[in-house]
Amino acid sequence: MVLELLTMAAHRVGRCMLLQPPRLATCVLFLLLPLLLPCSASSSVITHLPGFHGRLPFHLETGYVGVDEETGTELFYYFVESERSPSTGPVILWLTGGPGCSGFSGVVFEVGPMKYVLEPYNGSLPRLVYNQYSWTQMASILFLDTPVGSGFSYAHDPKGYNVGDISSSLQVVTFLKKWFNDHPRYLSNHFYVGGSSYAGKVIPIIMKFISEGIEQRQQPLVNLKLQGYIVGNPITGSKIDDNFKIPYSHGVGIISDQLYEAAVANCNGDYVTTTNELCAKALNAIDNLMSEVDYGNILDDKCVRATPKPINEVSRSRSLQEDYIRLSEPTVRPTINCFSYRYYLSFLWMNNNLTREALKIKKGTVGEWIRCKTGLPYVQDVASSIKYHFDLTTGGYRALVFR
């Protein structure tokens, strides 16, 4: 890349040398200016992380990719190369739910190569260890902070945060085009898009855009070996998902046969919009019972979420001039037996100066890191992803749906 830039610079300056001295300096500056501006993509190889003993036993790269020049939107990513066969193993783009959750959740809570040591917090930096069940033993995985505003992704212009299902999916496709352009050695590997929860709604949309790019022979996607997608506990559409909560809660034994039958008899199959008093009474009783279990995992204890009070990251991001500070603990601290205790540890670890320096986070772009941000101006402009699933599967792409 450096050699290409120097060659380009030499050609441009050579053209300027034909001019007279008064115009020569102006011409050189004008032609070289694009080469002096920041690149739309930047990356760093990370060999050590705070709280992880010794050198990382896997290849980790972090970086930013610009996806919208007008608003200065840059998406942050973590890339872990396959530990077994990076040249032939599959490449997976892994997205997290929300919308507004950081891709780092995939790194330490889902399919990635690290996990937190579960121990009482004593004021020191939370510790990380290697996850022997990581999918990165078999595949290279790109964990992405999307939509913009999630994790460490940011926009210079506050208008850049105004995205939705369609526009954020298009930004992901732009990200992939640029990332593969900088990493062409992975184009020959089989490629999949995967994720969970709300990501399960946008993944078919992203897949559709990628497949269209391949059909239209858009570089470098034309060389991408797109195979299929993976969605876990996927969101499909609010009306479909909300309507299924009633038969699901009955199927797993949260509500009784009598209560379920009352809902069936009086709600006419619509458990979202109540049309009569008997239906409303049954749904209220069901809601009360459902409130006693953890929505994420009904077999877990009912736990608080380790998420600090929401902040308006959009308005705050432009005024960040100070260096990072050591932040206080989240406002709510779950007990160590709760899965959300891991979220509590991630908040403390991510908002430490040493961590941000190690991950090469750009100073002044994002204030407080929050695993799942609320209040982003995100528009859910796709009511249902069913059509996208249908088009992809009938088009020959493989799909894995798991719960």
Q: How would you briefly describe this protein structure?
A:
The protein is of the alpha/beta class.
Verbal overview:
This protein is of the alpha/beta class. Among the domains are: about 1-35; about 40-235 and about 380-400, Rossmann fold, CATH 3.40.50. Helices cover about 35% and strands about 15% of the residues. Strand 9 (about 190-195), helix 5 and strand 10 (about 225-230) form a beta-alpha-beta unit.
Key attributes of the depicted protein:
403 residues; alpha/beta; Rossmann fold; two-stranded antiparallel sheet; globular; disordered N terminus
SS class:
alpha/beta
> Strand-residue fraction?
15-25%
Q: What gap, in angstroms, lies between the N and C termini?
A: 43 Å
Task: Give me the strand/helix succession.
Answer: HHEEEEHEEEEHEHEHHHHHHHE
Q: CATH topology of the domain at 41-236 and 379-402, what is it called?
A: Rossmann fold
How helix-rich are the residues, as a percent range? Answer: 25-40%
Give start-end ranges of low-pLDDT stretches: 1-39, 307-328
Mind telling me the CATH superfamily name of the domain at 41-236 and 379-402? Alpha/Beta hydrolase fold, catalytic domain
State the shape.
Answer: globular
> What's the average pLDDT?
85
Main β-sheet: number of strands, strand sense, barrel status? Answer: 9 strands, mixed
CATH class of the domain at 41-236 and 379-402: Alpha Beta
- Give the beta-strand count: 11
